[in-house]
């Protein structure tokens, strides 16, 4: 049974629901099932992940050196500890805080968009860290250093761009300076 929400919470929930993409959820679900090797228990992604057990298993498979211990207890604080372990794994693999969800986003179903985004981010960062499994979404960019020779740097200084040296025939005629307009080089208030 869900608790009715009102006011700003209701508006935010409606806005999040309007942006929610079921296709991305389905992709995340398929990826989780493929990596963990088991079907999720519920048709609801939130219900399947809420206890954090699957998330800890997912982190153990994708994050090098992570060895989380999922707790199968039905007590809410134990379930939140599992979610916390998953968030620690996201930190360890390098997922930026801005791409991570908060525990309540999943546990209370407040922001499932962010949960799905975090799963996509885990996939990208895990593959970059050496995870050999499937990739969910686009690959992270790889930093590529470019080195120029001194001759190449010098030749770049000798280029005159189109924006330099041409004013398109513009001049200062009819331009106002300090609240007065000069016409023909004279101040109209000072005629001789």
TrEMBL record:
UniProt-recorded name of the protein: Calponin
Gene name in the database record: SCP1_1
Function: Thin filament-associated protein that is implicated in the regulation and modulation of smooth muscle contraction. It is capable of binding to actin, calmodulin and tropomyosin. The interaction of calponin with actin inhibits the actomyosin Mg-ATPase activity.
Stored PROSITE patterns: CALPONIN_2, CH
Family named by the database record: Belongs to the calponin family.
Keyword terms: Actin-binding, Calmodulin-binding, Repeat
Lineage: Eukaryota, Fungi, Fungi incertae sedis, Chytridiomycota, Chytridiomycota incertae sedis
SUPFAM superfamilies the UniProt entry points to: Calponin-homology domain, CH-domain
Domain Calponin-homology (CH) stretches: 22-127
Keyword Repeat listed: yes
